[in-house]
GTP cyclohydrolase 1
Amino acid sequence: MDKEKIMFHIKGLLEAIGEDPEREGLKETPARVANMLAEVLEGTAYTNHEIAEMFGKTFTSEDIDADEAIIMKDITVFSYCEHHMALMYDMTVNVGYIPRGKVLGLSKIARICEMAAKRLQLQEKLGRDIAEIISEAAGTPDVGVKISGCHSCMTARGIKNASSHTETRTYLGTFKTDSDLKKLLD
Ligand SMILES: Nc1nc2c(ncn2[C@@H]2O[C@H](COP(=O)(O)OP(=O)(O)OP(=O)(O)O)[C@@H](O)[C@H]2O)c(=O)[nH]1
Ligand SMILES: [Zn+2]
C-alpha cells in the first residue's frame, strides 16, 4: 500500500471538505489515516490463493478421525463496503467444511475470515472469498459460510435503518444440496 500517496490525498480531502489540514488536531491525521488503512485493508495486498497458503497449516485427520463437518461459529470481523468505503460492523461469520484427509488449525479459520474481510468488500463477495480460501487451504470442495452483518452505509446514513442487519450464505460442494449441513451453519 502506498502510504505517501494516501497521506497526500487525505490532506487534499481535508481541504476539500473545508478543513485546515495544518491545524493542530489534524496535522498528523493524514499519517494516522494511512497507517489505519494499511492495517484495516491489509488483505488487499494478497490474493485468495496467497491467503490460503499463508494460513493453510493442516493436520492429518486420520490421527483424529475427523470426517464429519467441522463448524466454527461467531467469528467476529470488521469490513468496509466497496460502494461507500463505510464500516461493516457487528459481523459474525460461521464457517463449516467437511475434511478430506486433513483438518485446518482452528485459529487459521478465524485468521482467513479476518484477512478476507480486510478489503473493500461486498458481504456476498466476502462469503465467497472465505469459502474459496477455506476450500483451497483445507483441500475440500465442501464448504459453507454464513455471514451476519450491519452496514453503517445503511444504518448511519442514507436510509438510516438502524436496526437492519444482513445475512448471506455461500455454499460449495455438498453444502449446496444437503439441507442438514446448511442447518449446521445457523
Ligand atoms: N448487495 C450489497 N449491497 C451493498 C453492500 N454494502 C452496501 N451495499 C449497497 O450498495 C448500494 C449502492 O447504491 P447507490 O444507489 O449506488 O448508492 P447511494 O446513492 O449512496 O444509495 P443509498 O445507500 O440508497 O443512499 C446501496 O443500496 C447499499 O446499501 C453489500 O455488502 N452487498
Ligand atoms: Zn455501502
About this structure: The first helix runs from residue 3 to 16. The chain has a mean pLDDT of 95.
